[in-house]
């Protein structure tokens, strides 16, 4: 009996040591959690608090707290009135709308070095910052086509500038194929705005008879490299769909080209296809419902930029390109797909290939019946100093497949598959955590698809979720992957919320 009790005690201690409760708080009137953000450089979890604006889906943010991996709390700001506070890529500056006076043309506040810099609304007028994308909860740089109110700002600012692009007419509608491209910088400390023409990447390397045809026009993405410089990313796909080249062109903030690196990816007997990997913008069109039906049809078109996406290691500068491959070539980009597996290519910061990892996804026949590439939601996330690859589908069925990718070798481990159901009745018009996926294994609990991925790669999360009572209020879950482990956010969206950190 003593041995049995000792075994139970040891197992319990292992389970408890695998998780740390970072936050466990109750909602307060006019001071409830409204959003969150993980800072990968600082390794801190930020919770923003505030209150909802009556008759809208928006929030006023009044306070922000950060927590380290031990749960130590730091007050970032309090007693403010802000909308959409967002940290810069350096994590030393954050930007928000000044909501002290309600206005459609509110000024911007930049908080840095314990001070506040005001940038006038007009100073950033007609600047297209969408090409710089936006970081999601898991710090994936996502391509965007437009910015909605009350969502995080685009990743277009650092500690010195807020940046954007215009065309030769100084308009924010930039056509990469037809227009000249101008970089515009707004200096945060004095609102000074400068404009300079860029030597844009060569279209002959991206478009022509040797390349695959696409419905969407040739475009580009941008990425700020802290306070140093920025990259413009372009891609090409060969007409046989077996070679793709990613060009990373680095520019200074005065518009001068510093260097250009090509990254060549090749599949010998397989074919590149697009996927919803956040690597490129989406063209979304809605078709009215047919007579007798209450449902409209939504069509999503992807372009060359969605052939793959990349993760850049913040420490080493190594770059990992990832995506889905097919066993058949299509006639044009995004014309369909027959997904068979995934690939990851690793390059060093000088553009030299280190390894390639090409892997079939097996065991589920319905994966092979997915023919619309926009329904393949693909991620490569930093996890415990390695990477977690996942592909999720929300179509005629819902599932996630996940695997751990070793950064050093590209070898794969912890491959698994999980199925669940999408129940949109769980969605809320306004909530701290909002999602809709459920599983019969977890009564009264609602998850994001990426949370199911977290369950695959860290079984301690499943153990914890099963230990939480099935009775009482419905609980909502979201996860953030990091090199610290997996952060799990749990809330009933009414009275309490909790943040836990799970390590292997």
Explain what the structure shows.
A hairpin with a 4-residue loop joins β33 and β34. The protein is mainly beta and 504 residues long. 40% of the residues are buried. The model is unreliable at 1-16 (pLDDT under 50). The chain contains three helices and 34 strands. The protein is globular. It has helices spanning 2-17, 449-457, 459-467, and strands at residues 19-26, 32-39, 44-52, 59-67, 73-77, 82-87, 93-98, 108-112, 115-119, 134-135, 141-142, 161-166, 182-187, 193-197, 221-225, 229-237, 243-251, 257-266, 271-273, 282-287, 297-302, 309-312, 319-326, 339-347, 353-360, 376-383, 386-394, 398-405, 412-422, 437-438, 445-447, 475-482, 485-491, 496-502. α2 (449-457) packs across α3 (459-467). The strands form nine sheets. A five-stranded mixed beta sheet has the order 1-34-33-32-31.
Structure characteristics:
504 residues; mainly beta; five-stranded mixed sheet; 3 helices; disordered N terminus
Note the main sheet: 5 strands, mixed
Described by the principal axes of the CA atoms, the overall outline is globular
Content-based structural category: mainly beta
Strand order in space, largest sheet: 1-34-33-32-31
Question: Total number of β-strand segments?
Answer: 34
The termini sit apart by 29 Å
Give me the number of helical elements: 3
- Radius of gyration from CA coordinates: 23 Å
Report helical residue fraction: under 10%
User: Hey, roughly how much beta strand do the residues contain?
Assistant: 35-45%
What does the average pLDDT come to? 91
Unreliable residue stretches: 1-16
């Amino acid at each position: 009996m003593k041995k049995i009790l000792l075994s139970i005690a040891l197992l319990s201690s292992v389970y408890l040591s695998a998780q740390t409760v970072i936050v466990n708080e109750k909602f307060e009137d006019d001071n409830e959690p409204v959003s969150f953000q993980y800072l990968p450089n600082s390794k801190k979890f930020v919770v923003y608090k505030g209150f909802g604006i009556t008759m809208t889906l928006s929030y006023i943010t009044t306070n922000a707290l950060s927590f380290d991996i031990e749960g130590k709390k730091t007050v970032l700001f309090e007693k403010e009135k802000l909308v959409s506070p967002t940290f810069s890529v350096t994590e030393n500056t954050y930007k928000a709308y000044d909501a002290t006076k309600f206005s459609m043309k509110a000024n911007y506040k930049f908080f840095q070095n314990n001070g506040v810099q005001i940038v006038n609304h007009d100073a950033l007028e007609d600047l297209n910052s969408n090409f710089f994308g936006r970081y999601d909860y898991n710090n994936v740089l996502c391509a965007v086509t437009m910015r909605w109110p009350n969502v995080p700002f685009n990743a277009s600012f650092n500690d010195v500038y807020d940046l954007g692009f215009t065309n030769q007419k100084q308009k924010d509608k930039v056509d990469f194929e037809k227009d000249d491209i101008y970089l515009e910088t707004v200096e945060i400390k004095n609102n000074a705005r400068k404009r300079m023409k860029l030597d844009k990447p060569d279209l002959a390397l991206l478009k022509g008879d040797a390349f695959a045809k696409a419905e969407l026009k040739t475009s580009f993405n941008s990425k700020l490299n802290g306070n140093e410089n920025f990259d413009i990313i372009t891609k090409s796909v060969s007409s046989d769909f077996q070679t793709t080249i990613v060009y990373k062109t680095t520019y200074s903030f005065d518009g001068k080209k510093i260097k250009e690196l090509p990254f060549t990816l090749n599949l010998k007997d397989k074919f590149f296809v697009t996927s919803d990997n956040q690597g490129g913008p989406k063209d979304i069109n809605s078709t009215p419902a047919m007579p007798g039906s209450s449902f409209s049809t939504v069509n999503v078109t992807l372009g060359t930029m969605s052939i793959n996406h990349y993760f850049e290691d913040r420490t080493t500068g190594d770059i990992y390109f990832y995506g889905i491959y097919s066993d058949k070539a299509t006639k044009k980009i995004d014309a369909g797909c027959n997904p068979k597996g995934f690939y990851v290519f690793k390059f060093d910061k000088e553009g030299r290939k280190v390894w390639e990892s090409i892997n079939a996804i097996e065991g589920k026949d319905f994966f092979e019946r997915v023919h619309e590439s926009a329904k393949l939601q693909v991620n490569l996330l930093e996890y415990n100093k390695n990477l977690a690859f996942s592909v999720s589908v929300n179509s005629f069925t819902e599932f996630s497949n996940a695997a751990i990718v070793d950064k050093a070798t590209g070898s794969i481990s912890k491959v698994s598959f999980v199925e669940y159901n999408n129940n949109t009745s769980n969605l809320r018009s306004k909530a701290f955590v909002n999602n809709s996926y459920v599983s019969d294994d977890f009564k009264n609990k609602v998850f994001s698809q990426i949370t199911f991925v977290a369950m695959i790669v860290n079984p301690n999360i499943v153990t914890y979720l099963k230990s939480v009572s099935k009775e009482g209020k419905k609980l909502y879950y979201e996860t953030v992957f990091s090199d610290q482990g997996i952060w799990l956010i749990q809330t009933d969206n009414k009275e309490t919320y909790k943040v836990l950190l799970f390590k292997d």
